[in-house]
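Encode chain A's predicted structure.
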Amino acid sequence: MLNPAALFLDQAEQSPHLQFVYDVLAQQVVFVNAAYEPLLRGQRAHVNAELPALLARLPPDDLPLLQRSWRQWQIGDLHHELEVCLRRVDGPDQWLCFTPYWYQDAAGQAFVSGSARDLSNEKAHRHNSEKFNAKKNTVLEILSHDLAGAFIILQQLTDYVQEEMGTPANAKVPEMLDLMRQTSQKSVAMIHDLVDQEFLESATIPLRRERVDLGQQVQLSLEPFRRAPGFVARQLRYEAPAEPVYAEVDPNKLLQVVSNLVTNALKFTPDEGHIVVKVEYQPKHVRIVVADEGIGIPAALQANLFERFTPARRPGLRGEPTTGLGLSLCQTIVQLHHGTLTVASQEGQGTTFTIDLPMPAAR
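Encoded structure for chain A:
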């Protein structure tokens, strides 16, 4: 006769994922499967003695959130998976995803149980993918600004040569100059179409939120700007607190917004101007600021600045064209994060864009 309890116990023993049962009243682990030993490098017979050392590996910044989740779990009020980071001194951090379960017997005794799978490799792959995407987006923005700017200059030089040369000895010269002008115009249009399409498509993909050090992420996204030729004169500066600034965001999408705002600042800031990017905690939210010393935005245009194909769109100081989509998409992505994107500007004195995001629950 089939014994369901024995079958499930055998299943738990054979599982590659951690399976456990915890007696809430006794505050003891009463069952843990064989996966405990390779996964957490312990001995299952000594699991209760090893618990304090395991808990000591939790990042201090994560403790408030984890303590609240543990209280919910003990009374059967935790209904979602819980990702937990464990620090390692001999390698990268270990990530575990717990699937919670709660049981109460006929006598009212509560038991916490569940399973945990190792997410470390998945987290590493996702981090590398997001790092690549952030770098790709920044490179596209730089490409849009620098390469398109070169074609714009070539187009302007073509017009100048044509005006100055008078009647050429070779009848084919005007034809070649006209071809250069058309090629430059098409190249600029292609570059900006590529960047706008990439931004438009990525804005429609659902968010993949995670808790990240926002200060570190923004700093990494600015590195390609700071290393790009021609940007040193504008003195792009980054400011953030010494301690981590945590936020629950989709890093790839949010950093795309930051890159777009920095690119806009570069378009409208003279070579001798400064651009400052700041990340900081506010009393009720996390804030990102992109401020420039550019030409500013006329007051009459500011009300329509975040509209799609806004009438406030203007070419950059070096002739860079714009579709009027960028700021609209930036606002959409920030709103998907339940945040706000605002602007303060004065002609001749510069522009400041401010992103306010909800404070992480743990803080």
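The first strand starts at residue 18 and ends at 23.
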